[in-house]
Amino acid sequence: MNTLIVLRHAKAAHVPGLADRERPLTDRGERDAERAGETLRQLGLAPELVLCSPSARTRRTAELALDGLASEAPIHVESEIYEAYPDELLELIGRTDGEVSTLLLVGHNPGVHELVLNLTLSRDEDGFPPGAFAVLETGPWAEVGPGDCRMVSRWTPKDR
What we know:
Strand order of the largest sheet: 3-2-4-1-5-6
Structural class: alpha/beta
CATH architecture: 3-Layer(aba) Sandwich
Order of helices and strands: EHEHEHEHEE
Number of domains: 1
Mean pLDDT: 95
CATH class: Alpha Beta
């Protein structure tokens, strides 16, 4: 059984004149990203690989989450995650090395939220706010498709 952790970047600032890809996390976003990692550690999860969008806010979210996890997992920046649709994210996941059993994907809405809904065939009335994550169990990466995952856990920064 493999574990897929889907993490939306934490709260980012809107800075006039700054390109969308360069938007930094807010102070709250920094705290929430680290808390996400700490929560994943408490759940006993340790990713072996991180796939991350190239935006500043996703890279910083990944770094802080790994700090909270006390993890040294490599971060692979994948340009295709930025503005990706769920099928594009699924294709990227499907290319993951079979030796990786726990994968962390850090990206953007609506793609990451729709990916979780697609993989679990669930409805989610609560949305997927900045800093939220879902933990999914699945089979081999190359075979993952719609409805092939079971949601094990879901967390948002408002959870205590």
